[in-house]
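From the methods appendix. Each design record in this collection lists the tokenized structure first, followed by the designed amino acid sequence. Records were kept in a plain field format so they could be parsed without special tools. The example shown here is representative of the layout used throughout.

RECORD:
FOLD TOKENS (288 positions):
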């Protein structure tokens, strides 16, 4: 008794939607999906849609302006480097007992595991942030605290991160920062002292993992903040213009197990990411 009415396209879409709903690093608003192209296998490349800068010129009444120059932007390619798969077993007995509702929770579990891998991958791109946007280092990490007026007060450190972005001419709207659970309590205390505020109007950041808005940043919490050289966390901050991300469930299928009264359900997930604007991305190195 194989799984009846198994529609691969439906389950592929459902798994991808489940995964995207739980993303933190790879959610829309933290990254962008400004790409064009189809994804079917590792090594595929998609074109990232981008625009060049715009010149501002002096204007004099009665004088013709020079011809407009089309904006230029180098053709940027995002390569699909990550090729992952999931699989699980569904016995005929389980199908009978579940009365047809056995696939959804298993697909949700598969999606959660995929989401975790995708977030870890995007988090690892901290090495591509602009050198001008670094706060602290492995040799001299910051140690956030809740002491008022201290240079390492969590609020003051976040302000320092904002200053780095402003010096790099990054817009203030849509700024985000992803902190580890070890920093969450400090941030929440500071939110309580200063008063949490809602994101600015027009901000398209999603709400998964968001704990509040502080010092110009929407704050998110993730267990996937990179931890290197002992207890040195690499806290990413920036805007969605910094990283382009592409993902696709290439296949979900159900096949009969040759040696058991069961079905094997398996899926194929492809994704890739690229830091396309390093100036819009920064890293704060902290220990706790």
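DESIGN:
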């Amino acid at each position: 008794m194989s799984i009846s009415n198994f529609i691969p396209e439906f389950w592929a879409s459902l798994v991808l939607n489940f995964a995207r709903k739980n993303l933190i690093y790879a959610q829309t608003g933290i990254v962008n999906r400004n790409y064009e192209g189809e994804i079917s296998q590792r090594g595929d490349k998609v074109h990232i849609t981008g625009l060049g800068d715009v010149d501002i010129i002096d204007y004099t009444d009665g004088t013709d302006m020079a011809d407009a120059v089309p904006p230029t932007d180098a053709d940027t390619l995002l390569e699909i480097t990550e090729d992952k798969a999931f699989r699980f077993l569904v016995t005929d007995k389980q199908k009978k007992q579940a009365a047809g509702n056995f696939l959804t929770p298993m697909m949700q579990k598969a999606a959660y595991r995929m989401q975790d891998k995708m977030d870890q991958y995007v988090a690892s791109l901290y090495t591509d942030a602009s050198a001008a946007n670094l706060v602290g280092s492995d040799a001299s990490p910051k140690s956030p605290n809740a002491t008022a007026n201290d240079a390492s007060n969590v609020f003051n450190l976040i302000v320092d991160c904002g200053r780095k972005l402003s010096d790099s001419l990054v817009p203030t709207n849509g700024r985000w920062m992803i902190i580890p659970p070890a920093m969450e309590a400090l941030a929440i205390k500071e939110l309580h002292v200063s008063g949490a505020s809602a994101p600015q109007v027009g901000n398209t950041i999603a709400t998964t993992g968001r704990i509040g808005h502080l010092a110009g940043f929407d704050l998110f919490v993730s267990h996937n903040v990179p931890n290197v050289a002992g207890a040195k966390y690499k806290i990413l901050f920036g805007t969605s213009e910094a990283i382009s991300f592409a993902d696709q469930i290439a296949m979900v299928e159900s096949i009969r197990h040759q040696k058991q009264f069961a079905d094997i359900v398996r899926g194929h997930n492809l994704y890739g990411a690229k830091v396309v604007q390093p100036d819009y991305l920064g890293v704060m190195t902290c220990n706790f």
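APPENDIX NOTE: The CA atoms of residues 140 and 285 lie 8 Å apart.
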